[in-house]
């Protein structure tokens, strides 16, 4: 099969590379010539463990190609994935201009039957807009060419995207013809041979499934953060509560860790988009509106703990920040809680010295020299008045506390991810503050 993937961001590059890994001929297309040139040289535009090796291997084998020319890349393609960005507008709606522009370009250049697939996260009804955009361009050309539309939402976790694609929990595909189902079934056959389910459904349901999945996970996070805040008031320990409810098989233990809020490219954007979709259809997503409100407030919880302990004026205070990205194993800084915390500390007069294994370049791109950056976590704590754990990277889980205490001005830790043991930290002489426990 010949596959074209338009967009070499997180979703497009992972999708194209993993499809090439099972022997499919894949061309990834992007308008960014610098990005395409870099990919040919093995330079990754994103950080994802193992992706660079897989890209290099398949590019060398001639199964994975990179191009800025959609017209030649779409010629003869069996499946064309649209995997471009859908950034949120000011009203929370998904911006579809890039998706529809690609759909029009596909219609301008396709020359044989193919399935045009929306891989980007898009609201219900987008597939029909894509169909119309493709058909309009075919009509302009005076070409009577059959094609199908499908929705194939991605369910990739940043930091584990390759495993998620190669060994999926499920593959969801929305189609409305038998031929489209046959084509997509053939494409995904290598990924379901070990029993992973390929679930076909109507297109609107597939579009909704992506939003519903992310909204549910975001809800679990905000629910647990709300419980954590109540635990602090009532003198309970949210870590014990989490273990207690997580052992219930109806609930499970995933996505019920208390912290300082969710971020990233999916949850914030998708929750907003689903709320906006409901409003546009005269319905109120009351639970999701509360989820968003809790999450926005949760990003200030660590700062509130800092000022409760040190006062509102942080002039002359230095804070070591371990972790910047919204989660471990990614350099994604979109909606990262660290950015909110940095803004508040700096506004209160404090100084931030940060270390993150991979996301410091992206952070510097976003906020410049608002904070200081160091190349070693122990350099960050040198003469610091407090240590802030913001992202639970593995290298932060068992630090040498003797070294930390020797370097810091005072033994003070604010743990935004509940990584450390409260009793142990007390025995080490630290003043320790976490989420959901006094």
Write the layout of secondary structure elements.
Elements: E1 2-6, H1 10-21, E2 25-29, H2 33-40, H3 51-61, E3 64-67, H4 70-74, E4 79-82, H5 97-109, E5 115-118, H6 126-141, E6 148-151, H7 161-166, E7 171-174, H8 178-192, E8 198-201, H9 203-234, H10 238-246, H11 267-280, H12 286-298, H13 301-310, E9 318-322, H14 337-347, E10 351-355, H15 360-367, E11 372-373, H16 377-380, E12 386-389, H17 401-407, E13 412-415, H18 422-427, E14 431-433
Parallel strand pairs: 1-2, 1-4, 2-3, 4-5, 5-6, 7-8, 9-10, 9-12, 10-11, 12-13, 13-14
Helix pairs in contact: 1-3, 5-6, 9-11, 9-12, 11-12
Labels describing this entry:
438 residues, alpha/beta, Rossmann fold, N-(1-d-carboxylethyl)-l-norvaline Dehydrogenase, domain 2, 3 domains, 18 helices
Brief sketch in words of this structure:
With 438 residues, this protein is of the alpha/beta class. It has helices at 10-21, 33-40, 51-61, 70-74, 97-109, 126-141, 161-166, 178-192, 203-234, 238-246, 267-280, 286-298, 301-310, 337-347, 360-367, 377-380, 401-407, 422-427, and strands spanning 2-6, 25-29, 64-67, 79-82, 115-118, 148-151, 171-174, 198-201, 318-322, 351-355, 372-373, 386-389, 412-415, 431-433. It folds into three domains: 2-200, NAD(P)-binding Rossmann-like Domain (Rossmann fold, 3-Layer(aba) Sandwich); 211-297, N-(1-d-carboxylethyl)-l-norvaline Dehydrogenase, domain 2; 299-433, 3-Layer(aba) Sandwich (Rossmann fold).
Question: What's the number of extended β-strand segments?
Answer: 14
CATH names the topology of the largest domain as Rossmann fold
Helix content: 40-55%
CATH superfamily of the largest domain: NAD(P)-binding Rossmann-like Domain
Task: Bin the strand percentage.
Answer: 5-15%
The separation of the N and C termini measures: 58 Å
Any idea what the radius of gyration is? 24 Å
- The secondary structure category is alpha/beta
Overall body shape: elongated
Residue runs with pLDDT of under 50 for 5 or more positions: none
- Number of spatially distinct domains: 3
């Amino acid at each position: 099969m010949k596959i074209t993937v338009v967009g070499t961001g997180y979703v497009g590059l992972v999708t194209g590379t993993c499809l090439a890994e099972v022997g499919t001929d894949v061309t990834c297309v992007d308008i960014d010539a610098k990005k395409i040139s870099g990919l040919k040289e093995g330079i990754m535009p994103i950080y994802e463990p193992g992706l660079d090796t897989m890209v290099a291997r398949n590019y060398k084998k001639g199964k994975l190609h990179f191009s800025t020319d959609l017209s030649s890349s779409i010629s003869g393609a069996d499946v064309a994935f649209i995997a471009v960005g859908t950034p949120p507008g000011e009203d929370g709606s998904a911006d579809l201009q890039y998706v529809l522009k690609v759909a029009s370009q596909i219609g301008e250049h396709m020359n044989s039957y193919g399935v045009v697939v929306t891989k980007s996260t898009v609201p219900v009804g987008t597939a029909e807009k894509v169909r119309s955009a493709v058909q309009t361009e075919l009509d302009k050309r005076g070409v009577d060419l059959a094609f199908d539309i499908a929705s194939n939402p991605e369910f990739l976790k940043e930091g584990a995207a390759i495993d998620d694609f190669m060994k999926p929990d499920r593959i969801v595909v929305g189609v409305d013809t038998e031929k489209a189902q046959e084509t997509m079934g053939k494409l995904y056959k290598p990924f379901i041979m070990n029993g992973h389910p390929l679930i076909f459904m109507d297109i609107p349901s597939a579009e909704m499934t992506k939003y519903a999945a992310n909204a549910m996970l975001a809800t679990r996070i905000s629910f647990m953060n709300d419980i954590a805040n109540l635990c602090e008031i009532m003198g309970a320990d949210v870590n014990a509560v989490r273990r207690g409810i997580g052992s219930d098989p109806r609930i499970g233990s995933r996505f019920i860790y208390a912290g300082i809020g969710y971020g990233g490219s999916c949850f914030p954007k998708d929750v907003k988009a689903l709320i906006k979709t409901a409003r546009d259809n005269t319905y109120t997503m009351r639970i999701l509106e509360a989820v968003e409100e809790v999450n926005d407030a949760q990003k200030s919880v660590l700062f509130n703990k800092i000022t409760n302990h040190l006062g509102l004026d942080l002039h002359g205070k230095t804070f070591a920040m371990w972790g910047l990205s919204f989660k471990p194993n990614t350099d994604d800084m979109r909606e990262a809680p660290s950015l909110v915390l940095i803004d508040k500390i700096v506004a209160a007069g404090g100084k931030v010295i940060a270390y993150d294994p991979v996301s410091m370049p992206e952070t510097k791109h976003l906020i410049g020299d608002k904070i200081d950056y160091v190349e070693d976590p122990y350099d960050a704590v040198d003469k610091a008045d407090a240590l802030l754990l913001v992202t639970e990277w593995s290298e932060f889980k068992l630090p040498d506390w003797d070294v930390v205490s020797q370097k810091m001005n005072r033994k003070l830790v604010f743990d935004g991810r509940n990584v450390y043991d409260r009793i142990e930290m007390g025995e080490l002489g630290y003043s320790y503050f976490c989420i959901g426990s006094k």
